DNA sequence: CCCACCTCTAAGTGTAAGTC
DNA sequence: GACTTACACTTAGAGGTGGG
């Protein structure tokens, strides 16, 4: 309730403000009322509630405030869930409803904080493994390479500068509460052909098991137990080298193959990143994955005259069943729904247009341009992309999306495994010039 | 055409419930 | 009572669908 003061007048203002902001943002038609669920018809105001895909007629009213109150009343009767009701934007939330909303936001903040901490733990576990490995004699001949992105393979162990190695899955766990001697590793099954390395954060303990031999979903290790003794890693270098020699158990995997060991959804993302990296390399730029999941951006684009580093948010889209390309401009998340990007969160948004696994084109939008068009910094939006060959049918819509073409490069003349044609290189350089701060 | 809501698959943490 | 396991909760991105 901070800043609201709790007075009815302030709550009223909040309601009006919320609904008018929402109206302005989400309604493409001319709004006929500043309240949700209310529209003017002739000299009177009509209220309707859309709930669970059913439109509920409320009635006609002489004033829009009356209609707005009637909308709220109907919504409360249809929807008993306070949070869902608030997401549907009541015009005049009660004091209690506003405080519930505040609680939800606090929960959300805590959840996001936890998520960020978890990402740091993943990174910490890799650093621990790396540090212990570097202290072993095997580090003179072998190396552990981090597999970035959403792959189910976290790292691979290979002979230095070779093309393939054995896949490693890292799991981390912290001891909690009074059970400081118990470590519970979740989601440990389904890693056939990989070595599962379990790391106790905050302690100097490490265990390893052959992925194919783990049958349970969660593996619990109690210090001093049989399992602890059986799986405990005393010397990570020796353990990894021994596994490296067992080719029949741990087949070798290249870094590229490892990156594509992920869900179909993440394959789209990974494929786009690999292709974009090749394209930018063609004009002397490097597109490098941000290390670890804790980073606020997907990658960094480095290059140009001053070796500038731009923070990049990457998106990819295949042609959808509706015959169009679209990207989601939000972070997913939890009980309060999707969260929009902030203009300050990244410098450039790279959107890859994919067709049958080939990169047909790319958009590179500066964050300020997206903000100018109301696509970041306000509410979660989906951006329909219009490359030159997929322009909108109607002239008015074409005009509305014309700005996108300024930030587009057509890549259809590039086959993917050859050097970039000169026309594409010059287009990319022009685009990079626009992205300069 | 835009928006809201939904699904899918991936992950880690904490804890309730089951087993020995 | 100690140990083990499953589950509910949270996060992520891409994409499908129906209403307005």
TrEMBL record:
InterPro entries from the UniProt entry: MepB-like_sf
Protein name as annotated: AP2/ERF domain-containing protein
Protein's organism: Symbiodinium microadriaticum
């Amino acid at each position: 309730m901070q800043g609201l003061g709790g007075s009815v007048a302030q709550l009223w203002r909040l309601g009006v403000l919320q609904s008018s902001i929402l109206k302005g943002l989400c309604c493409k038609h001319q709004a006929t009322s500043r309240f949700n669920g209310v529209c003017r018809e002739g000299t009177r105001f009509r209220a309707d509630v859309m709930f669970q895909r059913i439109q509920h007629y409320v009635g006609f009213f002489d004033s829009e405030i009356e209609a707005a109150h009637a909308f709220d009343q109907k919504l409360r009767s249809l929807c008993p869930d306070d949070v869902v009701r608030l997401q549907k934007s009541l015009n005049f939330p009660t004091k209690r409803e506003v405080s519930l909303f505040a609680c939800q936001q606090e929960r959300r903040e805590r959840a996001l904080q936890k998520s960020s901490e978890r990402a740091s733990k993943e990174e910490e576990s890799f650093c621990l493994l790396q540090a212990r490995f570097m202290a072993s004699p095997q580090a003179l001949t072998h190396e552990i390479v981090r597999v970035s992105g959403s792959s189910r393979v976290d790292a691979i162990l290979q002979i230095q500068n070779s093309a393939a190695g054995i896949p490693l899955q890292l799991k981390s766990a912290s001891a909690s509460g009074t059970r400081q001697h118990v470590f519970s590793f979740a989601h440990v099954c389904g890693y056939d052909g990989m070595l599962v390395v379990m790391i106790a954060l905050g302690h100097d303990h490490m265990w390893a098991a052959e992925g194919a031999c783990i049958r349970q979903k969660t593996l619990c290790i109690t210090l001093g137990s049989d399992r602890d003794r059986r799986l405990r890693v005393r010397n990570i270098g020796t353990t990894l080298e021994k596994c490296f020699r067992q080719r029949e158990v741990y087949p070798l995997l290249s870094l590229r193959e490892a990156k594509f060991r992920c869900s179909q959804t993440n394959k789209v993302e990974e494929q786009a990143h690999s292709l974009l990296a090749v394209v930018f390399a063609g004009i002397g730029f490097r597109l490098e994955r941000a290390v670890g999941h804790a980073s606020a951006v997907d990658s960094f684009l480095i290059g140009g005259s001053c070796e500038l580093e731009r923070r990049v948010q990457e998106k990819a889209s295949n042609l959808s069943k509706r015959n169009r390309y679209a990207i989601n401009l939000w972070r997913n998340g939890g009980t309060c729904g999707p969260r929009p990007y902030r203009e300050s969160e990244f410098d450039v948004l790279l959107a890859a247009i994919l067709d049958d696994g080939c990169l047909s084109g790319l958009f590179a939008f500066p964050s300020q341009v997206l903000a100018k068009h109301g696509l970041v910094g306000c509410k979660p939006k989906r951006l329909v992309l219009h490359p030159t060959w997929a322009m909108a049918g109607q002239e008015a819509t074409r005009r509305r999306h014309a700005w996108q073409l300024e930030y587009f490069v057509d890549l259809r003349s590039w086959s993917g495994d050859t050097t970039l044609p000169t026309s594409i290189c010059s287009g990319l350089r022009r685009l990079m010039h626009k992205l300069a701060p």
